[in-house]
Amino acid sequence: MSSPSDVAIRSDLDIVIARTSARDVAKRLGFGAIDQARIATAVSELARNIFLYAGSGTVSVRLLDQLGRSGIEIICQDQGPGIADIPLVMQDGYSTSRGMGMGLPGAKRLMDEFDLRSQVGAGTTVICRKWRR
Amino acid sequence: MDALRIPILKIGNTLITSIQTELHDASAVQFKDDLLERIHTTRAQGVVIDLTAVDLVDSFIGRLISDIGAMCGLMGTQVVLTGIQPAVAITLVELGLELPRIHTALNLEKGLALFQSKPEGIGYEQP
Known about the structure:
heterodimer; A: alpha+beta; Heat Shock Protein 90; 5-stranded antiparallel β-sheet; 4 helices; 5 strands; 38% helix; B: alpha/beta; Transcription Regulator spoIIAA
């Protein structure tokens, strides 16, 4: 069985490491090529948000096994500035940086479950899941 | 870190480049700068960017490709993307990045044929 992984995000190279490791886990779990790409792309968006807004943080990849369903869970945590207006950042096209404002809503569309929690001054945690069909 | 540069080849009036490595943000930006510089020095009329080996395009790379199309257009050169994998096309549309102004072709051969059959390049629709 594939082992879960934790990747520290400190540079743009770590974004590549995080998405590659998520893709590897998804592949070993038996996700198809298209879902592997969805998962890796979502991780890339979330890891980039950590790098751009918080400077550093972690991306953890976990295996899920609930009632015979298997899936993948991605946990992205940072101790950055936090998000004051969550509905605003979940809008398509909203961005405060050089991005296109697709990171968070895009990642949400690519995954099955998406939970964003944030506290101003304390940090942000995103937990998202994708289940094997 | 000194990123491995993506080779840019010239055949006739066309530049051909194939992305074969995992792109991180800095190497993607380096590629954009290298490509624009090569267009300027070679006066290429067309650029084919082959993405056959690329298995992930996130919003950063997608925006960069969109920017390359716009910048090349300003310089008078046309860009064709070739070989986009099904998974990449699906994730791009789901992300909301459809690259509407970028020309595409199924594979490198068909992309090159676009420039060879029309020596003036691909006509953008006139407003």
